[in-house]
Amino acid sequence: MNELLITELVLRNVFTDLQPAEVAALLSALVYQVKSKQDDNELNENLTKPLVEGKRIIKEVHKEIQDLEMKFEIDKVSEPSRDLNFELVEVVYEWANGHPFATLMNLTEVQEGIIVRCIQQLNETICDVRDVARLTGDPKLYTKMEEASASIKRDIVFAASLYTQNEHVQ
After folding, report:
1. Looking at residue 89, what is its pLDDT?
2. 117: how many CB neighbours lie within 10 A of its CB?
3. What was the pLDDT predicted at 8?
4. Domain ATP-dependent RNA helicase Ski2/MTR4 C-terminal spans what residues (predicted)?
5. Is residue 75 part of a domain?
6. pLDDT band, residue 1 (cuts 50/70/90)
7. How many domains are contained in the chain?
8. pTM of the predicted model as reported, rounded to 2 decimal places
9. 68 part of a folded domain
10. Which of 156, 18, 167 is nearest to 95 (CA)?
Protein backbone atom coordinates (compact mmCIF):
# COMPACT_ATOMS: atom_id res chain seq x y z
CA MET A 1 0.00 0.00 0.00
CA ASN A 2 1.20 3.51 -0.73
CA GLU A 3 0.49 5.40 2.50
CA LEU A 4 1.83 8.69 1.23
CA LEU A 5 -0.39 8.63 -1.85
CA ILE A 6 -3.47 7.73 0.21
CA THR A 7 -2.70 10.54 2.65
CA GLU A 8 -2.40 13.05 -0.18
CA LEU A 9 -5.65 11.84 -1.75
CA VAL A 10 -7.50 12.16 1.56
CA LEU A 11 -6.07 15.60 2.35
CA ARG A 12 -6.88 16.82 -1.17
CA ASN A 13 -10.48 15.60 -0.73
CA VAL A 14 -10.26 13.46 -3.87
CA PHE A 15 -12.90 11.06 -2.55
CA THR A 16 -15.38 13.74 -1.40
CA ASP A 17 -17.67 13.78 -4.43
CA LEU A 18 -17.36 10.10 -5.31
CA GLN A 19 -19.80 7.32 -4.49
CA PRO A 20 -18.57 4.49 -2.19
CA ALA A 21 -18.34 2.06 -5.13
CA GLU A 22 -16.22 4.58 -7.07
CA VAL A 23 -13.86 5.06 -4.12
CA ALA A 24 -13.45 1.30 -3.72
CA ALA A 25 -12.81 0.90 -7.44
CA LEU A 26 -10.16 3.62 -7.55
CA LEU A 27 -8.40 2.37 -4.42
CA SER A 28 -8.03 -1.01 -6.12
CA ALA A 29 -5.33 0.58 -8.29
CA LEU A 30 -3.14 0.83 -5.18
CA VAL A 31 -3.77 -2.77 -4.15
CA TYR A 32 -3.56 -4.69 -7.43
CA GLN A 33 0.15 -4.86 -8.26
CA VAL A 34 0.32 -7.28 -11.19
CA LYS A 35 1.69 -5.89 -14.45
CA SER A 36 -1.23 -5.04 -16.72
CA LYS A 37 -1.52 -6.65 -20.12
CA GLN A 38 -4.03 -4.06 -21.31
CA ASP A 39 -3.35 -0.63 -22.72
CA ASP A 40 -4.32 2.09 -20.24
CA ASN A 41 -6.72 3.66 -22.77
CA GLU A 42 -8.53 0.33 -23.17
CA LEU A 43 -9.17 0.38 -19.43
CA ASN A 44 -11.16 3.63 -19.74
CA GLU A 45 -13.72 2.37 -22.24
CA ASN A 46 -16.43 1.34 -19.77
CA LEU A 47 -15.60 3.61 -16.85
CA THR A 48 -17.96 6.31 -15.59
CA LYS A 49 -16.87 9.94 -15.87
CA PRO A 50 -16.14 10.17 -12.12
CA LEU A 51 -13.92 7.08 -12.38
CA VAL A 52 -12.02 8.46 -15.37
CA GLU A 53 -11.53 11.79 -13.57
CA GLY A 54 -10.55 10.09 -10.31
CA LYS A 55 -8.06 7.95 -12.18
CA ARG A 56 -6.56 11.05 -13.80
CA ILE A 57 -6.21 12.80 -10.42
CA ILE A 58 -4.67 9.77 -8.73
CA LYS A 59 -2.12 9.39 -11.54
CA GLU A 60 -1.30 13.10 -11.30
CA VAL A 61 -0.76 13.01 -7.51
CA HIS A 62 1.23 9.78 -7.85
CA LYS A 63 3.49 11.43 -10.45
CA GLU A 64 4.04 14.44 -8.15
CA ILE A 65 5.11 12.10 -5.35
CA GLN A 66 7.42 10.11 -7.64
CA ASP A 67 9.01 13.33 -8.94
CA LEU A 68 9.67 14.53 -5.39
CA GLU A 69 11.08 11.14 -4.40
CA MET A 70 13.49 11.29 -7.34
CA LYS A 71 14.40 14.92 -6.71
CA PHE A 72 15.27 14.28 -3.08
CA GLU A 73 16.57 10.73 -3.67
CA ILE A 74 14.07 9.35 -1.19
CA ASP A 75 13.87 6.00 -2.96
CA LYS A 76 17.45 5.39 -1.86
CA VAL A 77 16.47 5.77 1.79
CA SER A 78 13.04 4.17 1.88
CA GLU A 79 10.67 2.17 -0.28
CA PRO A 80 9.77 4.19 -3.38
CA SER A 81 6.11 4.69 -4.21
CA ARG A 82 4.69 1.71 -6.04
CA ASP A 83 3.22 1.78 -9.49
CA LEU A 84 -0.51 2.01 -10.00
CA ASN A 85 -2.54 -0.59 -11.86
CA PHE A 86 -6.09 0.35 -12.86
CA GLU A 87 -6.88 -2.99 -14.52
CA LEU A 88 -9.41 -4.06 -11.87
CA VAL A 89 -11.17 -0.71 -11.43
CA GLU A 90 -14.15 -1.71 -13.55
CA VAL A 91 -14.31 -5.16 -11.94
CA VAL A 92 -14.31 -3.73 -8.40
CA TYR A 93 -16.81 -1.04 -9.37
CA GLU A 94 -19.25 -3.63 -10.70
CA TRP A 95 -18.69 -5.87 -7.67
CA ALA A 96 -19.29 -2.96 -5.27
CA ASN A 97 -22.51 -2.21 -7.14
CA GLY A 98 -23.83 -5.69 -6.42
CA HIS A 99 -23.12 -7.58 -9.62
CA PRO A 100 -22.56 -11.35 -9.28
CA PHE A 101 -18.99 -12.61 -9.28
CA ALA A 102 -19.62 -14.68 -12.42
CA THR A 103 -20.37 -11.54 -14.47
CA LEU A 104 -17.08 -9.98 -13.38
CA MET A 105 -15.20 -12.69 -15.20
CA ASN A 106 -16.52 -11.31 -18.50
CA LEU A 107 -14.77 -8.01 -17.76
CA THR A 108 -11.22 -9.26 -17.32
CA GLU A 109 -8.78 -12.06 -18.00
CA VAL A 110 -7.44 -11.87 -14.45
CA GLN A 111 -7.82 -15.16 -12.59
CA GLU A 112 -10.64 -15.51 -10.06
CA GLY A 113 -8.32 -16.14 -7.11
CA ILE A 114 -6.33 -13.00 -7.84
CA ILE A 115 -9.52 -10.93 -7.96
CA VAL A 116 -10.69 -12.40 -4.65
CA ARG A 117 -7.35 -11.67 -3.00
CA CYS A 118 -7.30 -8.14 -4.40
CA ILE A 119 -10.79 -7.39 -3.07
CA GLN A 120 -9.86 -8.80 0.34
CA GLN A 121 -6.74 -6.61 0.45
CA LEU A 122 -8.79 -3.70 -0.82
CA ASN A 123 -11.06 -4.01 2.20
CA GLU A 124 -8.01 -3.61 4.45
CA THR A 125 -7.04 -0.45 2.56
CA ILE A 126 -10.59 0.92 2.78
CA CYS A 127 -10.57 0.28 6.54
CA ASP A 128 -7.23 2.12 6.79
CA VAL A 129 -8.71 5.12 4.96
CA ARG A 130 -11.76 4.92 7.24
CA ASP A 131 -9.44 5.10 10.26
CA VAL A 132 -7.66 8.12 8.78
CA ALA A 133 -11.05 9.79 8.32
CA ARG A 134 -11.87 9.14 11.97
CA LEU A 135 -8.52 10.53 13.12
CA THR A 136 -8.83 13.65 10.96
CA GLY A 137 -12.42 14.26 12.05
CA ASP A 138 -14.05 13.68 8.67
CA PRO A 139 -17.37 11.92 9.44
CA LYS A 140 -18.54 12.00 5.81
CA LEU A 141 -15.44 10.20 4.56
CA TYR A 142 -15.69 7.78 7.49
CA THR A 143 -19.26 6.90 6.53
CA LYS A 144 -18.32 6.62 2.86
CA MET A 145 -15.52 4.18 3.71
CA GLU A 146 -17.89 2.13 5.88
CA GLU A 147 -20.29 1.95 2.93
CA ALA A 148 -17.49 1.08 0.51
CA SER A 149 -16.34 -1.73 2.79
CA ALA A 150 -19.87 -3.08 3.15
CA SER A 151 -20.35 -2.99 -0.62
CA ILE A 152 -17.40 -5.30 -1.33
CA LYS A 153 -17.68 -7.62 1.70
CA ARG A 154 -20.13 -10.16 0.35
CA ASP A 155 -20.65 -13.54 -1.22
CA ILE A 156 -17.80 -15.71 -2.42
CA VAL A 157 -15.11 -13.07 -1.92
CA PHE A 158 -15.51 -13.08 1.86
CA ALA A 159 -16.79 -16.62 2.37
CA ALA A 160 -14.90 -18.69 4.94
CA SER A 161 -12.18 -20.73 3.29
CA LEU A 162 -9.93 -23.60 4.21
CA TYR A 163 -7.09 -21.84 2.40
CA THR A 164 -7.23 -18.27 3.69
CA GLN A 165 -7.21 -16.78 7.15
CA ASN A 166 -10.13 -14.61 8.24
CA GLU A 167 -7.99 -12.19 10.24
CA HIS A 168 -8.18 -9.63 7.38
CA VAL A 169 -11.99 -9.71 7.35
CA GLN A 170 -13.42 -7.07 9.64
Report:
1. 97
2. 16
3. 95
4. 1-164
5. yes
6. very low
7. 1
8. 0.89
9. yes
10. 156
